[in-house]
Structures are given as C-alpha cells and as structure tokens.
C-alpha cells in the first residue's frame, strides 16, 4: 500500500537486458532470520533459474524455505528479522539485489508479479476489487480513471470472472474463494509481467475449483509466454503442470530435475520418501511408507547432509560432509552422496 | 442389525439466518445438513468426502451432540442418541469422541499435555481413579507414538504432527467405540500426514474402533475407508464401498470430483479425461430446486429441476442420487 504515498512512478527504461541470460537466475542465495531464540538459517545456498514460457515447480514442506526464496526475489522479505547473507538474483542478467529501491519497484509488477495462497488476506477488504486493480494502472502506467476501469474490466474478463462489469465494483468479501484467486491473478497480470510467482495458489481451494484455477494459469502462461515459479507442497499439482522441479529441504535444494525423470526415478532419498508416503487415488494401500522423524529446526540444522537423521540410506559420510550438487545428467542434480546409486538401483 | 454401531436416518440440521439488531427476524435457513442417512458398522471406517460448505463438519458436530439436530434420528447401538439424557448421555459422550482438524487451535496453550489428555478423566472419573491417571496418560502418549516423558510439556513445544497425536490421545483416553475424525490430516505436511494416517489405521485394529472419517482429500479418504459417502450441499449423493465409489462412480458429481484430483504421475499428463465443473457451489441458504447439483451438471434435463432424485440403487450395486446415473471409470 506504500505506493499510495509515493509519487507516481512511470514505466521507465530499465537496464539493458543481457542477451542469452536466463529470464530469472537465483544463485547461492543465503538468508537468515535473527530472532530472539537465535539465528535461523532459512536459506542455505539456493540456486535455480527459470526461462520464459517455462514452469519451475518448487516443492517442499512447511519451513523448507520455498516461500522465503520467492519473497527475496520479489524484494518483499521482512528485513529485519530477515538478512540476505549472500548470493545473487538476476532478472534478464540484471542483478536485483544491488538494484536501487526505485528500480526494484519497477521490476515488481511489470517484470515479476506474485500471487499468494490466501487471496482474502492478500486483498484489501476496504477497497473494491476494481480499485485495487486500477491503482497500479494509474500509478505505474499513468492511466486515467476511466481507462483504468475499462482495463480492469478487461482483466477480470480475461480471468473468466462472469459479469466483470458488475464485479469490478464489488468488495473482496462478495467474491467466493475461487473468484478471489481469479481477481488476484487479474491484478498480477495488470502490468503484463514476464514472470509470475505463484505461492501455493490453490492450497486453500476445493479440488474442482483448483482444477479451474490451474487451467487458467496454464492458459495465461502459454498465451503470454510467461516464466512461472509454482510454489507448492502438492505432488499431484506439480505432476500436472511442471516442466522442471526443484525440491527444497531445510533451506537447500536437494534435487533438481525435469518432471518426468523425477517421478520415474527420484534422485534423492527425501524425494523418494515423499513420493512413497503419498496415499493414492487409484489403489487402497495398506501401510503407507513414511519418512521417520521431523524436519529439522532451522536454528539447529544437522551437520553434514541436513536430511541424514531421517534418511534410510544414511552412512557415516552423511553425518560429516555436506553433499555437493551431483550432476546426474544434463538438467538433473541431486545433493546426495549416493545419488548415482539411487538412480541406478 | 447388531452390526451397525451407528444408524443415521434423514438427519437434518438447519441454522437460522437472522437480521436486525434488537428484534432479530429469521429470514431463511442455512441447510447445512439436509436429510443424511447412513450406517456405520462396527470396526469399519466410513469416509465422508465433499467440498467446503457441503455440511460434512456440521454432520460431525451433530453426531457428537454438540449441536441439536433440526430433524431426523440417529441410533447408537440401537438406542436413540438424541433422546438420551442423564447417565445414559454421559456414557454416550464417552463412547463417541472427536479428533479435530487444526492441531494448533484445538489444544489449550495454557495446559500441559498431561492435563489435556487427562482432562477427560476429570469428567469421567469412573474410567481412571485419581491415583492411576498419570500412568494412564503416559500409556496413551506411548500408544500414539510420543515420548511419555514429555507429559509436562506445553502444546507449543510440539510440531503439528505431534500435536495431532496429542489430539488423538485425548480422543482415545475414554476408550471410545466411535471416533469422528474431522479432517485430521489436512493441516499436516505430506511426510507427517502419512505417519498420522498409519497411526489411525493401527489404533483401529488395536482397539476395534469405528471411524467416521471426514476429509476433502479423496486420496486420503480412499486410503483409510471401507465405505465412502460423497456429500454435496447437505446431501449424500452417492454411497458405497471404497471400490464402488472410486472405480465405478455413477453420480456425475463423484465423477467430476474424482477426475479433478491431480494425479502424481507426469506421464499421465494430458491423457486423463478431466471433467471440468463450471462455477461454484450454490449457497446452502437457497439451494437449487430438484437435484442440487443440476446447476453445475452437464447431464441436467428438465426433470432434474422438477424432481429430486432419491438416493437409491440405480445402475450399479450401490445407491446414487442421480436421475441419469451411469457408471464411468475416471480414476486411471
């Protein structure tokens, strides 16, 4: 909401895009939270990249750092308690972590936009949905009220909200859960971003509505050739939309792979455990396989491989040495000392 | 007959919608549960699935006698649950327990785990005399896979999965016959969810429990249930064994629901036939006439608006509430 108080920022020419650079490249990102209880190491060297038109799914359980990575990319991380300890985030080859606040604001919305899990708390309850979409158009694009309203109606139409003309004047509480998520997608698309970060976009929704929203996101992505980061814990959703997958555990990426190979043959014991612990729709299983224990506290990450206390394949080396990123094949990496064995099993 | 521990017939729960500040007028009713019938057999798990607002949690509250029903009846071991009072009601409250969804809000943050799990004994001292309570609580902690030494800890010192185990231990304390599980694993991460589901399965065989297992996740329900009831807007639209519902669904809503579940296998991408439903669930204050699903149904005809389809056996061996019930396999 700070955009209200700042003077209007028109679209200005950004830094020249570096040819050949990926749309977004995150490299060795380290973030910690300094809290009363100690230093919580939330991100410990996260690297991934996304190309235009591609969907990267970031998969992980609560506390794995998937949302913090996204917040750091967007520049909306709460600092303090958050501190960026190192790494780089490049958008079209331009370093965002060193960019001015003004430049970052320009990238936010028109370069990279984000949608959140809980659309009800992400929307402001005291303004109409239309006003919230129009606000960015007026401030950033310098549109008149009338033009902005017309564009807002177009955007609501685009995300298939029936009766957009009437809906644009309504407040968020008058929308159903699925409609709110659509409105938020419309809002994120207002400045035609090249990249969309969707943080658990369908977690709060019912399955039939989830299917509608995922269809819509896919359709919009293809139409606009957007890069997309889909943050989720749902292995089913990932299987349906992801081109590539990055699996996070305790602030690290433990496996990165194309979607097909990962489901066929997981290259990390954690991924394998996750897949095996899923109840299946197509069979009534007996005992589910489980991953023993709990995810570690980020205040005290285990030495060596952070997954070793829960790992069924643990060896002595795992307790002392942090596993490097093994390149298993082009585009496939695993941070496990025994990744090759796991793959060739 | 004696095999059914719970017999629910035409259960109705309406909540009045009131307007006005001082002189409240009732302007309508939320038909949260609107004529639900089912049997729960001894030792079995009945899964109840449906989307938000279909009435599955209200059903749980009525079965727990936390809310009085508007109509209908329910018999527990052959006796009318809603007519019970006095000592008989106290006994009923021991026999039916609940596990709630959110392990963060369902445990009192100011009570130790020992007090939380031991509290049922305060109300029903006949189950455990005073001296033996600490021992009982330790046993319960052990049964649900927690360290008995943690009896004096507070809920915030536990993770989500561990808290859900505390909730389960509390439900087990009085040795109930039926446990109503209202979305017990939906707040948990995948790896923890599997642990809690296994625990629920183990406890069932160990103590001979019967579960009413309410959830929106169809895979979770299939994994644990013997029979499944599918709810839509306060009504059961289809009920049958786990195999009948998942492999031979006949109601269009069941088919749409099943086909919308994302399957964790990228090789099936684009090959599965997915039935996309239009729009949202209508308001339970003013449900559509006739069949409640007709506004979103691709098979809807004039008869669907005029005549409400009964939940009866039609094309398959299990009951389905659709005029045009037709078997169709949608799960790969």
UniProtKB/TrEMBL annotation, chain A:
SMART domains: AAA. Pfam families: ABC_tran (PF00005), oligo_HPY (PF08352). SUPFAM superfamilies: P-loop containing nucleoside triphosphate hydrolases (SSF52540). Residues 24-275 form the ABC transporter domain. The keyword Heme does not apply. The keyword NADP does not apply. GO terms for molecular function: ATP binding. Keywords: ATP-binding, Cell membrane, Membrane, Nucleotide-binding, Transport. It is a peripheral membrane protein. It is found in: Cell membrane. It comes from the Bacteria. NCBIfam families: oligo_HPY. Belongs to the ABC transporter superfamily. This is ABC transporter ATP-binding protein. The lineage of its organism: Bacteria, Bacillati, Actinomycetota, Actinomycetes, Pseudonocardiales.
TrEMBL record, chain B:
GO terms for molecular function: ATP binding. PROSITE patterns: ABC_TRANSPORTER_1, ABC_TRANSPORTER_2. It comes from the Bacteria. InterPro entries: AAA+_ATPase, ABC_transp_ATP-bind, ABC_transporter-like_ATP-bd, ABC_transporter-like_CS, Oligopep_ABC_C, P-loop_NTPase. Keywords: ATP-binding, Nucleotide-binding, Transport. It holds the Pfam family ABC_tran. The keyword Transport applies. Residues 6-258 form the ABC transporter domain. Signal peptide: none annotated. Belongs to the ABC transporter superfamily. This is Dipeptide ABC transporter ATP-binding protein. It comes from Actinokineospora xionganensis. The lineage of its organism: Bacteria, Bacillati, Actinomycetota, Actinomycetes, Pseudonocardiales.
